Amino acid sequence: MTEEESASTRNNVEEVHGQLFEVGPRYVNLSYIGEGAYGMVASALDTVTRERVAIKKISPFEHQTFCQRTLREIKILTRFKHENIINIQEIIRSESVEQMKDIYIVQCLMETDLYKLLKTQKLSNDHVCYFLYQILRGLKYIHSANVLHRDLKPSNLLLNTTCDLKICDFGLARVTDPKTDHTGFLTEYVATRWYRAPEIMLNSKGYTKSIDVWSVGCILAEMLSNRPLFPGKHYLDQLNLILAVVGSPSQEDLQCIINDKARSYLISLPHKPKQPWSRLYPGADPRALDLLEKMLTFNPHNR
Asked: Any idea which positions bind ATP (predicted)?
């Protein structure tokens, strides 16, 4: 063993893809899983339980936005306990605030996610049903706590080899009081564009839990065809793709839009008829199409 290796072992540090993980002595044998804007994820052996876990290393203090997202996710997930929501088993950090640079979040290890799965295989009707059931079960729990997830998409739905599904990434989530009007307080730029409800883009009155229902509708459509339903290249393209499927909004639908410019823009567009879901997904289970019909309506009050 080299001097450097022995120093790393002494300090309970392991290197993963050039990043140092200070998570020993409990967590050992780290392997790289992946990384995103907010940090790197590695798998590790928990020497206490003898199970492998996922450890997310986050360096949130470089940017205020990262800091807010990390704190928001930790606050929400430490309160949640549900089979279909990713858990936090432990948070590892420096003992003093002065030394605190990185945070390590230990969670159960899930082998893949729905995004990766849909890239590689077609789902059976049974799999679609089982995954959708778990998504809605988790979402019911989230919404019962008056939380909006605001970023539901296939890559935020983790899966293991026994088809258990867990919703993750609560960095954009918001606690919402149903008795309060949130107009003007909920930011417009949320959710990956393809899964974003039209009212978010059009700045309608303070949006509600129905934005997550829209995202689930988009995910269901993607499970049926292995293709995103509304893969917009930009803001206007996204809106046009949505209207080409769900049709032009009615007078009643337009009442939801308080932004005058957005309403005028919608009125100025040529009329677009609604597409039958059976034409878009000819081989799909009629019950799945009925659910798409109910989830992907322009008017959030009718979802």
From this structure: 57
- Residue 266: which CATH number? 1.10.510.10
Same domain, 188 and 292: yes
First to last CA, the chain: 62
pLDDT digits (tens, 9 = 90+) for 7-17: 344 468 899 98
Q: Encoding tokens for residue 149?
A: 């997830």
Is 57 annotated as contributing to ligand binding? yes
Q: Is 212 a catalytic residue?
A: no
State residue 3 phi and psi, 5-degree precision: -60, -40
Q: Which of 87, 227, 273 is nearest to 168 (CA)?
A: 87
**Cβ(210)–Cβ(118) below 8 Å:** no
Residues 148 and 292 in one domain: yes
Total domain count, the chain: 2
Place of tokens 């046009």: 240
pLDDT tens, position by position, 199-221: 988 875 567 899 999 999 999 99
**Domain with 33 in it:** 10-108
247 against 12, higher pLDDT: 247
pLDDT at 76: 94
Of 86, 84, 81, which is closest to residue 41 (Cα–Cα)? 86
E-strand spans in 37-85?
39-46, 52-58
Cis? peptide before 231, omega within 30° of 0: no
